Amino acid sequence: MLTELRIRNFAIIESVTLPLAPGFNALTGETGAGKSIIVGALGLLIGERAASDLVRTGAERATVEGVFDVSGTPAVAMALDAHGIEHEGEVLVLKREVSAGAVRARAWVNGTPVTASVLGELGQLLVTVHGQHEAHALLDEDSQRAILDAFGDATAEATEVASAHAELQGARASLRDFERRRDDAATRADWLRHVAREIGDARLEEGEEARLEDEARRLTHAEELRALSGEIMDVLETGDEAVLARVGHLQRTLGALQKIDPSTARLQELYDAAYYALEELNRESQGYLASVEHDPARLAEVERRRDLVFRLVKKHGGTVALAVHAAREAQAELDLLDTASLDQRALEQRVTAAATALAESAARLSKKRGAAAKRLATAVDAQLPPLGMPDGRFAVELTPRTEPLAVGAESVEFRVALNLGHEARALARVASGGELARVMLALKTILARIDHVPTLIFDEVDAGIGGKTGLMVGDAMRRVADHHQVFAITHLPQIAARAHHHIVVSKGARGGVTTADITIAEGDARVREVARMLGGDAESSVSREHARELLAVASGAQGIAPEAIAEPVHSSSGALSEAAAPAKAQRPKRRV
User: Fold this and answer.
1) Residue 436 CB: number of other CB atoms within 10 A?
2) CATH number for the segment(s) 1-132+452-520
3) Percentage of the chain lying above the pLDDT 70 cut
C-alpha cells in the first residue's frame, strides 16, 4: 500500500508530505484547493505522461515521490527482479522528476534510474486510479468481459482460448499460403520446368565466371606469355650470360673467404638463399611455359561456355549463385505439385485439429462464464439496494457467436434495470453518470477479494449522488477497504465521515503565489470539515451538531474511536454551547 506521498513544486503545490494509512482514506477540501492535483501527481508517479507545464511557477523542477509497503505483493518483487532492480525488505520508493522546459522526465525505483515504461509497469501492480469518468469503461465490452472472467476465475481459460484461436489462424494462413503457391506452380509449370532444366543442364558452378575469364585471357595471349616466360629462362639458365651459371662461380670465392675470416659465414647464408630462390624461379618459369599452349579449339570452347554462363546469369539473377538458387526454387515448386495432395491433407488436418482444440477451449470458457454470469448478477443485485437503487437488477447477457473468436464463443454485455417494471437493457442505454459510478462501486466491492492491486484511488466518483445514497456509497468504499487501501477524493460529507483517515486540503497564498495546506483532520478539526461539507457554517453550533451526528453514526459503522470526535456541550436551552469539550490535539498543518 501507499504509505507516504511527497510532492514538491507540482502545479500549485510547493511542498507537501501526504501520509496515508491502511483502510479508507478520504481527501476533502474546497473546490480548486488542489485535490485532483494530488491525484495528478500520483498519476505521474506511476508512469503517466509528463509535461513541463506541471512545474510550479518559479521552480526549476517538480518531483513526486511515493513510499510503498510491498509486503504480500510477490508480483512486485518479480517485476523488480526482471528489471535488475535491487530491493530489500518491504519498502519500495518510486520517484519522478520533471524539469521546467524539459520534454522528458526522469524516474527512479529505489534510487535506480528507470524508464517511464518500467515505472508504469510497477505502478500498475501498486495502484489503480478510478477517475470521475472511469466508470464509463464499464460500457466497453472488453472491460465487461475482463470483469466477468476475473470474477469467474476464468482468466486462464480465456488465455487458452486466445492461444488456440491464434493457432487456428496460423494453420489457416499456412493452408491458404500452400494453396496459393500450389496454384501459382500449376500455372507456371512449363516455365518452371524450362528454368530447372536449362540451369540444371548447364551445371553452373560457384566461381566459374572468374575461372573462365582467367583461362580465356591466357589462351588469347598464349604466344606472348610463352615468349615472356622463355625470356626469363634464357636470362636465368640457357643464355650466354646465364645468371645461375655466373652466380654458381661465387660458391668457391665465398668458401675461400670464409676460410680466412669465419665471420663471413653470414655471406654464405645470403648466397645460399639467393641461389635457391633463383633456381625456384627458373623451375616455376619452366612449368608455366609448359602449361601455356596455343590452342584455338580450347579458346573457342571457353568462349562458348562464357557466353552460356553470361546468358543464364543475366536471365536468372545476376550471379551464378542466384541463378543456381532460381533453379532450386523452380524445382521446389515443381516438387510441390508432385506432393500437393499429401501436403494439403496434412495442412487440412492441422486446421481441423486446431479448430477442435479451439472449440473445446471455448466450451470450457463458456461453461465458466455461464456460471460466473449468474453468480455475478446475484452478487451485484445484492449490492444495488445499499447503493440507493432498491429496485435495481443486474444481468450478464452472453450471446453465442457463430464461430469462436480470440475472446471466446460469446459476446458479453452487462445489462441493468434500475427501475421497477422495466426490462434490463444495456448499461450504456440506461444508467446515468451517478448510477454508473455506483454500479462500478458494486462491482469493485465484489471483485475486491480477487483484485491483487493493493491501493485503489477514487477521484470524485461520487459525482451526481447525494443524501442517503452518499452514505451507501461511503459504506461500499468501506467494504472495499476491508481488502484494499482506499484513497477517495470526495465532496460528500457522508463519504468522508466513513473514512478511517481524513485529510483536508485548503488553498492559500504565499509571496503572491498560490499555495495549499494539508491537514490531518482529527477530533474537532474533523467536525469542522464535515460541517463545512454539509453546506453550513463550519463554526455554527447547528452545523457542528449535524456533523457530530454524522460522524457518530459513521463511527458506529466503522469503529472510529469515540474520543476522535469532540462531544457537543449543550446549554439549558438545548443549543450547542460555544464551549465544546476539549478536542484531541490537532497535527500541525503542512504548508504547500
Assistant:
1) 24
2) 3.40.50.300
3) 86
